[in-house]
Amino acid sequence: MRGATVKAAEFDEIAPGYDESRGGTARAAGFAEQLAPLLDPARPVLDIGVGTGIVAAELTARGHTVHGVDLSPGMLSRAKARLGARVAVGDACRLPVRSGSVDQAVSTWLLHAGPDNRAVLAEVARVLRPGGRYLVIPAGGTRPTDDIGLLVGELEDRLDPEGSRRDGPEWLAPIGAAHGLVYEGTASERPTSFRVSPRAMAESLTRGLFTGAWAVGGEASRLVDETRSRLLALPDPDVPRVRETADVVLVFHRGT
Ligand SMILES: C[S@@+](CC[C@H](N)C(=O)[O-])C[C@H]1O[C@@H](n2cnc3c(N)ncnc32)[C@H](O)[C@@H]1O
Fold first, then answer.
1. Which residues lie with the beta carbon below 6 Å from any ligand 1 atom?
2. What are phi and psi of 47, to 5 degrees?
3. Ligand 1: distance of its center to the CA of 16 in Å?
4. Where is the Methyltransferase type domain (predicted)?
5. Eight-class DSSP state of 218
6. Which residues partner with 108 through β-bridges?
7. For ligand 1, atom 5, which residue shows the shortest CA distance?
8. pLDDT tens-place values along the chain, 256 residues long
9. CA of 59 to the centre of ligand 1 (A)
10. 75 CA to middle of ligand 1, Å?
11. Whose CA is nearest to atom 10 of ligand 1?
12. C-alpha span between 118 and 233 (Å, rounded)
C-alpha cells in the first residue's frame, strides 16, 4: 500500500504540467485514432490509469463512452473536468469493478509507471467478460536504437530485471497467457520521431520522471547516476538526436 501511496503522490506532483509535457492533445488524438477502430462504440470502455483523461476525452469525441480509474487524485481531478462523474480513484491491481463485467478496457502508458504488470493483467482478466478486449499502448513503443536509446534501454533492463514494469509484447504476452488473456498481436503501428540531446535525457533521468521517481533510490540511484555520466560522455552531448520509434497497440482478449 505504501508503494501505491508513493506513486500517487508522484503523479499528483506532475499532474499540472502532465498533458503539455507529454505531447498534449496531439499525442492523445493520435492514440485515440489508433484505439477507436478496435473498440465497439455501442459498449462502454474502461480506461485503466486514465490519468488526466486526455486520451479518454479524445475517445469520447469519437463516440465512445469512457469510464476511468486512476490511483492519483491529482491526475484524476483533471479527468473529472473532462469526463465528469465517470471517473474513480482506484488501483489497477484491485479494480473497483465486478468480475466479468467489462466489455473492453484500454491502458495507455500505464504499465511502465509502477503497478506490477502481473497484478494488473491478472486483474484485467478478472474484470473482463469472456471475449472482452484489453488494448495496451506501451510507453516504450519500439525502443529507439540511437546512442541515447541504447544506454537508456540498458538502464531500464538493469533497473527492472524481473520485468515488472516492462510493457512490450515479449513480456506481456506470456503473463497474459498465465491469466487467461490471449495476446492477438499488434493491431496498429504509428511511426513517430522526437528530438532529444544526451544532456536533456540525463537531466530527465536526474529528475526521476523518466524511470518513475519511486524507482530511484539506493542501488537504482547508482545505476541512474552511472547512465547520466555515460550520456554526458557521448560525443556532442548538447546536439539533439532524432530518435525514431513507433506507437503500437497490443490487443488481448479474455479467453472463454
Ligand atoms: C504516464 S501516466 C498515463 C496517463 C494516461 N493514460 C495518458 O496516457 O495520458 C500513468 C498513469 O497511471 C497511473 N497509475 C500508476 N499506477 C497505478 C495503479 N496502480 N493503478 C491505477 N493507476 C495507476 C498514474 O497515476 C498516472 O495517472
1. 4, 7, 11, 49-51, 54-55, 70-72, 75, 91-93, 108-110, 113-115
2. -95, 110
3. 14
4. 46-135
5. T
6. 137
7. 51
8. 445 655 788 888 889 998 988 889 999 999 999 999 999 999 999 999 999 999 999 999 999 999 999 999 999 999 999 999 999 999 999 999 999 999 999 999 999 887 899 999 999 999 999 999 999 999 877 778 899 999 998 988 888 888 888 899 999 999 999 999 999 999 988 888 888 999 999 988 866 555 454 555 678 888 888 999 999 999 999 999 988 888 999 999 999 8
9. 17
10. 8
11. 110
12. 37
Q: What is the helix, strand, coil percentage profile of the chain, to 5? A: 45, 25, 30
Among 16, 256, 19, 248, residue whose Cα is nearest residue 135: 248
Query: Which of helix, strand or coil describes residue 184?
Result: strand
Phi-psi region of 185 (alpha: psi -120 to 50; beta: other; left: phi over 0): left
Is 166 in contact with 253 (CB distance < 8 Å)? Answer: no
Ligand 1 centre and the CA of 144: distance in Å?
Answer: 23
Amino acid at the residue 83: L
How many angstroms separate the CA atoms of 215 and 156, rounded?
11
Domain architecture of the chain: domains with CATH:
2-143+162-192+244-254 (3.40.50.150)
